[in-house]
Amino acid sequence: MSETHLNLRGLKCPLPALKTRKALQGVPSGGLLVVACTDPLAVIDIPALVNETGHSLEGQTEEAGALLFRIRKA
């Protein structure tokens, strides 16, 4: 399966969620999108987006001051 990385560090709400939604359109079905962002509201927004769109949140961690989300496209 393919893995795509998206660096959204420095962007503020609602841009991380909007750019994640757009990036998911280009990920093949079953592919993985790894999103890195620094916006603290992404902890709420990204999981809500994933739930709303029917994809799967495989992991959520913090690394080097950034939130990392691993999203598997449905």
Topology overview:
Layout: E1 3-8, H1 15-25, E2 32-37, H2 42-53, E3 56-63, E4 66-72
Parallel strand pairs: 1-2
Antiparallel strand pairs: 2-4, 3-4
Helix pairs in contact: 1-2
Domain UPF0033: 6-30
Keywords: Transferase
Family: Belongs to the sulfur carrier protein TusA family.
CA-based shape: globular
Order of helices and strands: EHEHEE
Strand fraction band? 35-45%
Total number of strands: 4
Domain UPF0033: 6-30
GO molecular function: transferase activity
Pfam families: TusA
Protein name: Sulfurtransferase TusA family protein
Summarize the structure.
By secondary structure, this protein is an alpha+beta fold.
Structure description:
It is a single chain. Helices cover 31% and strands 36% of the residues. The chain is built from two helices and four strands; from the N terminus they run E-H-E-H-E-E. Strand 3 and strand 4 form a beta hairpin. Helix 1 packs parallel to helix 2. The chain is globular and about 30 Å long. The two termini are 12 Å apart. The model has no long low-confidence stretch (mean pLDDT 96).
